[in-house]
C-alpha cells in the first residue's frame, strides 16, 4: 500500500526547547522518502519516529542556518553506517557548497554509500521521475534560501457510467486507457483528468513571489510561521513570516491542508498560531505542528 504523509521530526526555530527539537521533516511519497532541513538532533528524532536511514532517497536543505542543517553530519554518517543500498541525492543552495562539504566531512567515517550532490542555483526543476517533479524557488532571507515543491503528474479517472453507456468493460477498459481510443470511442469520452497531488515546503523567508509560487494549489503546504502577527516588524527584519502572513498566502493559493511550524521560543501558547491563522481567513484543514506529528497528504478530490 502506498503511503503519502509528512513525519514532523522537529518544529523549533533557532534554538530547541524542552518540547521542540530543531527542524526536521520527512515526506513519505509512496516508496520514497525526502528529508527536509535536518537540524541538530534529527538522527535521534528519526529513531523516535520510526524512520530509518534506509527510508531516505533525497535530502533537501533550504539554507545553511544551523537549525536547518547541523543535523546533516549525523544523518549522512548514519546513512553510511547502515550501508543504505540505494543512491541518495542531496539538494541545497550552491552558494552554501562549503558548508555542505564541512558538514558532510565533519569527522572521520567510512563512506559506503553513493551520495549525489545536486546543488540548487536557480528556480526550476531539480528532478523528474515517474512519480513526481521536484522544483525549487528562491525565497527571501538574509542568506540564500530555496523552497521546494513536489508535483505528481496528472492522471485519468475512469467514469463507470460512461464506460457502461459505451459497453466498455473488462479488458477493454485497459485497452482504451493504453491506446487512447476503442472502436471509435475516445478516452476523453469515458474519463476525466485526475489532477496530481502537490506538496510544498517553505522555510525561512519573508513574503515574496517564491512563497506564492510554491504554495499555489497545494494539497499540503508546510510553511514557517516563526512569529505571531503582533511581531510582524520583527519577522520582516529577520526574514520570517507571521502566522497571519502564512495563512493568507495559503488561503490565496487554495491550499487544502496547511501545516504551520518553525516557532520562536518566545511564545508559550502554540494555539495562538491557529487562532491567528483562522483570523486571517484560512478555512482549510490546519495543523499547528508538534514534534513527531504525522500529517497525511489529503486524499485526491
Structure explained in plain terms:
By secondary structure, the protein is of the alpha/beta class. Helices cover 26% and strands 26% of the residues. The protein is built from 10 helices and 18 strands. The chain has helices spanning 42-49, 66-69, 72-81, 97-104, 160-165, 171-179, 209-215, 232-238, 243-253, 271-279, and strands at 4-10, 24-29, 32-36, 58-60, 88-91, 115-117, 124-128, 133-138, 146-151, 155-158, 181-182, 185-186, 191-194, 198-202, 220-224, 257-261, 285-288, 294-296. A 7-stranded mixed sheet has the order 6-5-4-3-2-1-18. Strands 7-8-9-14-15-16-17 form a 7-stranded mixed sheet. Helix 9 (243-253) crosses helix 10. The longest helix has 11 residues, at 243-253. The radius of gyration is 21 Å and the shape is globular.
Percent helix: 25-40%
> What is the H/E string?
EEEHEHHEHEEEEEHHEEEEHEHHEHEE
Low-confidence stretches: none
Number of helices: 10
What composes the largest sheet?
7 strands, mixed
Number of strands: 18
β-strand amount: 25-35%
Going across the biggest sheet, name each strand in turn.
6-5-4-3-2-1-18
- Secondary-structure-based class equals alpha/beta
Output the radius of gyration.
21 Å
Outline:
This protein is of the alpha/beta class and 301 residues long. It has helices at 42-49, 66-69, 72-81, 97-104, 160-165, 171-179, 209-215, 232-238, 243-253, 271-279, and strands at 4-10, 24-29, 32-36, 58-60, 88-91, 115-117, 124-128, 133-138, 146-151, 155-158, 181-182, 185-186, 191-194, 198-202, 220-224, 257-261, 285-288, 294-296. Strand 7 and strand 8 form a beta hairpin.
